[in-house]
Amino acid sequence: MPTAFVYAAARTPFGRYGGALAEVRPDDLAALALSGVLAAAPGLDPVRLGDVVWGNANGAGEDNRNVGRMAVLLAGLPTSVPATTVNRLCGSSLDAAMVASRTIESGDADVVVAGGVESMTRAPWVLPKPSRAFPAGHLEAVSTTLGWRLVNERMPAEWTVALGEANEMLAERFAISRERQDEFAARSHRLAAAAWDAGFYDDLVVPVPGVDLDRDEGIRPGSTADRLAGLRPSFRADGTITAANASPLNDGASAVLLGSESAALGLAPLARIAGRGVHALDPQDFGFAPVEAADKALRRAGIGWPDVGAVELNEAFAVQALACVDAWAAEGLRDPAIVNTKGGAIALGHPLGASGTRILGTLAHRLVESGERWGVAAICIGVGQALAVVLENAR
């Protein structure tokens, strides 16, 4: 059976909600990430692409009707290059990479691009379509930016709580204090700024033409736990979660180039896809789902937490990241400091459909930089799911 490798990664800078990328369509962002990752393999004839698998969470606006295929066309690739779009909410692009890796391992394709995009700024409001013409009552416009919408009344109320409330429940369950969350958030900003200053992201991030945005827009280098402590809770009057210790709303796109060992792309692979894991639990507990997803991926890779030298965990909320890291530490994670050493989503941003391949590409480059053999990329997903991938350093 062929083995799937990560050969290259690229992404746009991530913009804040209503910020520098607000005027850029999501399909254009997707095309930029796609072109950016292919530029890393200039000798690759795009005709050789067996598929493009793209992730997208909302799909209600300009990213509708298979935004992966739109990215292929807008990037100027041959019309013979196929593409599909997958939706596993926040995990969509990591799911895309997992699908792509299986495609290579099955022998159905030799080279596949996986990626994802989200413009949370440009996500539209929607109206429920009436079953009959001219309803007498009022209709409410619903934002498609984030969270539940047009909820089926048969869904139990405990499953459909707001994402923030679900994580306040997680903070209570594991006794994770506001102080720990604020320190974790401040660390995310410090490490993200330091990584940019050191040039780590220079070769990973492609510019957006016509936009003055050199770095991820949400990074606040001077963040400290003391400064964040002054912010009001966002979901409960006496709560622990604030706008600063949760990921923001963002716009952006990311991509990875995957291929077999014999793909002949003109560049050495970065990392091997060594294990995959998917897990589901009660919807309100979604933030804790990465624990078992990562454990499954590790078992399939034939290793354990003491072997892991780098972790990229998407920081949807500081509290859920801390809950996961605490659980992994109890299972043998050698040092919590190996998690998100280049900053995480609290600082870099979390454009839903783009975050999965962002963490996967970052992890592959971290392994090459550090020389560590094994790494884990994991992400929680709304409505009670999570995904994880284990990478083995190919260098």
What is the topological layout?
Layout: E1 4-11, E2 15-16, H1 26-38, E3 51-55, H2 67-74, E4 83-86, H3 92-105, E5 111-119, E6 125-126, E7 142-143, H4 163-174, H5 178-197, H6 225-228, E8 250-260, E9 271-280, H7 290-301, E10 308-313, H8 318-330, H9 345-348, H10 355-370, E11 374-381, E12 385-393
Parallel strand pairs: 3-4, 3-5, 10-11
Antiparallel strand pairs: 1-8, 1-9, 2-8, 5-8, 6-7, 9-12, 11-12
Helix pairs in contact: 1-2, 3-10
Mean pLDDT: 97
SSE run: EEHEHEHEEEHHHEEHEHHHEE
According to DSSP, the number of beta strands is 12
Question: How is the main sheet built?
Answer: 10 strands, mixed
- The CATH superfamily label of the domain at 4-122 and 248-393 reads Thiolase/Chalcone synthase
> What percentage of the residues does DSSP assign to strands (E)?
15-25%
Radius of gyration: 20 Å
Helix content: 25-40%
Quick recap:
The protein has 10 helices and 12 strands. The protein is an alpha+beta fold.
Structural write-up:
With 395 residues, this protein is α+β, with helices and mostly antiparallel strands. It has a domain of 265 residues: Thiolase/Chalcone synthase (Peroxisomal Thiolase, Chain A, domain 1, 3-Layer(aba) Sandwich), CATH 3.40.47. The protein contains 10 helices and 12 strands. The strands form 2 sheets. Strands 1, 2, 3, 4, 5, 8, 9, 10, 11 and 12 form a 10-stranded mixed sheet that branches. Strand 11 and strand 12 form a beta hairpin. The radius of gyration is 20 Å and the shape is globular. The model has no long low-confidence stretch (mean pLDDT 97).
What key phrases describe this protein's structure?
Peroxisomal Thiolase, Chain A, domain 1; alpha+beta; 395 residues; 10-stranded mixed sheet
